[in-house]
Structures are given as C-alpha cells and as structure tokens.
C-alpha cells in the first residue's frame, strides 16, 4: 500500500525540479531529510524512480546515502549538509594530492561495497558525491544518486530511457551500451581523481573520445606518483584498468606512500 508521505513532511524547502522529479529539504519525524518526489505519470519515469529506490535500499554503508523510506512517489534520504564535491571544486578550485586521493579512496570504498552486492553505480561524478561537513576526506564521502545504476537480479532495464550519464565521466563501453561492468565505475573514479587534481576532466571533447574519433587527453595532473593509477583507470579497454575497486585503492595507497602521505582508512564501508 502506498502512503501519503507528503502529510508527514514539514518545513519543506524546494531545491530543484526537473525531469519529472522535485527535490526538497524537509523535516520528517524530527529529522532533516532530502526528499525526491516523482511528479510525472510517465510509466518509464515511474519504473526508474522505483528502481532507484530499490537499488539504493540494497546497499548499506556509511559512505553511501541509503533511503529512509521509499514509496512509489517519494524517496526520503537523510539530509547530508556540506555540499557536493562539484560545489567544492567550483568554490575553491582543484584539490591537492592528499585531499584528491582521500576523496577518490572514499568513492572506491563505496564502489567496492556496491560491486560486492552486484550493483554498479554508473554515474560516479563530483555532482553525485556529497562531502559531509564540507570536508574533503575519505570519511566524509557520501555517494548518492542511483538513478543510472544497474543491479544484478533486478529485472528492469532502465537504461533504454532518455537519461544519459555525463559524457566526461562515462566509460567508453558504457557509452556503447554495456551495463553492469564494475570497471566502468573505476573509469569514472579515475576521471573524478583527474578532475579533482586538474579542475577539469581529461577530455575537452569527451564525446569524440568516447566514439573513438580521437585520443586527445589533457596532460596528467598532480604529482607523477599518481600518474600510474590515472593512466590505468582511464584505459579505453576495461582489461587495461585495475581489476577491482580494491586493486585501484591499493594503487592509490602506494601512490600516497610514495608521496609521504598516511594510508587512508579502509574499514569504513564493510
Ligand atoms: N541526501 C542528500 N543531502 C543533501 N543534498 C543532497 C542529498 N542527495 C542529493 N542532494 C543534492 O541534490 C542533488 C540532486 O540529487 P541526485 O543527484 O540524487 O539527483 P539527480 O537525479 O542527479 O538530479 P539532478 O539532475 O538535479 O542532479 C545533488 O547533486 C545534491 O546537490
Ligand atoms: Mg545526480
């Protein structure tokens, strides 16, 4: 039975509205929540909305924002103050090697958790990473937005619809239609690290690179110790990338050690 959650929401503050979905901040049972409300009656959008809630409910890890409540029209999440990684980069410019690798490590720990549960996120990018409390640290990472994700065992193929990932962060095989490949998330994590260090993603003409028209990548940013992991994660062929999120994290940890930085904690997302 669907319930009318609207009646339980107080102090509603609209944030955005597009694609048939309204996002708001509100109070729900004494807690500040982030609310997504489906406004559209399109069966395609309804199915994708339910799918987003189901996938996000499957995962439970401190580095991922899971829903408090899912109904056919509403998704309620704990509100995470601090803004997105994108907002942070826009506000203060590129991150140094320490913060950039800390944040990427948090994204990889969340990805490892997802992949172990048969979920690929497929839309990892700075807009979909919240930094709790505004800190650019591993512990502060909160991955959001399962609107593009793929979950093994869930029947629905939601990806034939209109929503496309951002080309800059999308792996070439994902662009060609392949779904459910965990190493696509590693490519996105590589672009995210690149963007954190450089202040811009690697390909100005991302669509041209995705389509195989050119290989004109910007110079690898940051210290040389990070170039191996960047080069590997950004490989066109998934076989050229690290085999898993854990392996990419190990490369990041080695790079941090070479830079004299302490290892990031790895026990945050069991
Ligand atoms: N739990 C949360 N707490 C605080 N802010 C959030 C939360 N979840 C999402 N946001 C904010 O809302 C934005 C949109 O959320 P989300 O990425 O889940 O939706 P979306 O489908 O990508 O919508 P959009 O196309 O507007 O980005 C995020 O980029 C972030 O700024
Ligand atoms: Mg998003």
UniProtKB/TrEMBL annotation:
One of its GO terms (molecular function) is protein serine/threonine kinase activity. It holds the Pfam family Pkinase. Keywords: Kinase, Serine/threonine-protein kinase, Transferase. Gene3D superfamilies: Transferase(Phosphotransferase) domain 1 (1.10.510.10). Residues 1-252 form the Protein kinase domain. PROSITE patterns: PROTEIN_KINASE_DOM, PROTEIN_KINASE_ST. It comes from the Bacteria. InterPro entries: Kinase-like_dom_sf, Prot_kinase_dom, Ser/Thr_kinase_AS, Ser/Thr_Kinases-Pseudokinases. This is Serine/threonine protein kinase.
């Amino acid at each position: 039975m669907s319930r009318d959650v609207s009646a339980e929401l107080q102090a509603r503050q609209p944030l955005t509205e597009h694609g048939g979905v309204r996002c708001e901040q509100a109070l729900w049972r004494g807690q500040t929540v982030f609310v997504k409300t489906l406004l559209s009656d399109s069966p395609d959008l309804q199915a994708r909305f339910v799918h987003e809630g189901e996938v996000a409910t499957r995962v439970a890890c401190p580095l991922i924002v899971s829903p408090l409540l899912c109904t056919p029209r509403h998704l309620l999440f704990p509100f995470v103050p601090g803004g997105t990684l994108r907002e942070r980069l826009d506000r203060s410019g590129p991150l140094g090697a320490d913060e950039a690798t800390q944040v990427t490590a948090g994204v990889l720990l969340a990805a490892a958790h997802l992949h172990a549960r048969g979920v690929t996120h497929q839309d990892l990018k700075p807009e979909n990473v919240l930094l709790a409390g505004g800190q650019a640290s591993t512990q502060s990472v909160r991955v959001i937005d399962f609107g593009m994700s793929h979950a093994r065992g869930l029947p629905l193929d939601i990806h034939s619809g209109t929503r496309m990932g951002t080309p800059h962060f999308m792996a070439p095989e994902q662009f060609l239609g392949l779904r459910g490949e965990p190493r696509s998330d590693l490519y996105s994590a590589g672009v995210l690290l690149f963007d954190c260090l450089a202040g811009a993603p690697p390909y100005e003409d991302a669509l041209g690179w995705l389509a195989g028209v050119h290989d004109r990548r910007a110079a690898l940013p940051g210290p040389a110790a990070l170039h191996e992991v960047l080069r590997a994660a950004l490989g066109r062929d998934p076989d050229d990338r690290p085999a898993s999120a854990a392996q990419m994290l190990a490369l990041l940890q080695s790079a941090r050690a070479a830079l004299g930085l302490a290892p990031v904690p790895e026990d945050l997302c069991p």
